[in-house]
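Final report, closing paragraph on structural work. Over the funding period we assembled a curated collection of sequence-structure pairs, and we close with a single example.
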Amino acid sequence: MKKFSYPALEPFNFMGLPDQDYEGAKFIIFPVPYNSTTSWKSGTKDGPQAIIEASRHIELYDIETEKDHSKDGIFTLEFLEPSKNSPRETILRIKEVVDKILDDEKFPFILGGEHSVTLGSVLSLKDKFSDFSVLQFDAHTDLREEYEGTKYHHACVMKRVRELDISVTHVGIRSTSEEEVEYVKDKKGSSIFYAPDLPIEKIIDSLKENVYLSFDLDALDTSIMPSTGTPEPGGLGWYEVLKLIKAVAEKKNIIGADVVELDPVPGLVAPDFLAAKLVYKIIGYVNK
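Its predicted structure, as stored:
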């Protein structure tokens, strides 16, 4: 694959950081504006840009960790151009970019877009790590075999992950289908924690040493995160989510992450800022 040689996208790089370079960065922000299979609302393709624009208003100094994590380098790649041919081809394009990020020993952080983008990261990580789990924050289990005529729908993404013999821990779940319930009964390697149940030690015990963190924003309660493609009432709160992610980062090795399914609402900027802040908080917890 060709070397990443283009400059940071200031003012559209994450947090508006000037003078960022790929070679010196530890964290690589990879925006994927993709939403070809969103179930209801269709604006998740605008999520990455909304997150990046909101991130420019985040303070670089993090009070909790007492550190400016941008000093360790956060570089923003160009927005991926999704394939017009098929969802699968888009997934493979994502994998190709994440392959390069991992080859360069950097931390891949995808901004979606719909949740199906996670599969591209997982396919790449499987080539690099012999053993890891996916920690999925989500309102939905995403374990359908097929939906709307494709196996690469966001409602199927964790089924595709499980087929790679990778264990998945689902947290924040409050909507699923009978098909998915029956699948979980018959399969090992999936642990489901339904909202509002969030037992930190049990969740951590369900994970392997290496963890990929996938955060669908509809895991959060709609009172703080109404801007999602498929909103569900009764979700998780800001501080309980941060408490869990921090605990996972302390006890496990987080090897990559994504934040997906932001569907921006014109004039409602608080959810965009929340998503951007969440990205920076995850970077802070990983950046030990």
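The beta strands are 27-32, 61-62, 67-68, 74-76, 107-112, 133-137, 167-173, 190-194, 210-216, 253-260. The CA atoms of residues 54 and 169 lie 29 Å apart. We thank the funder for supporting this effort.
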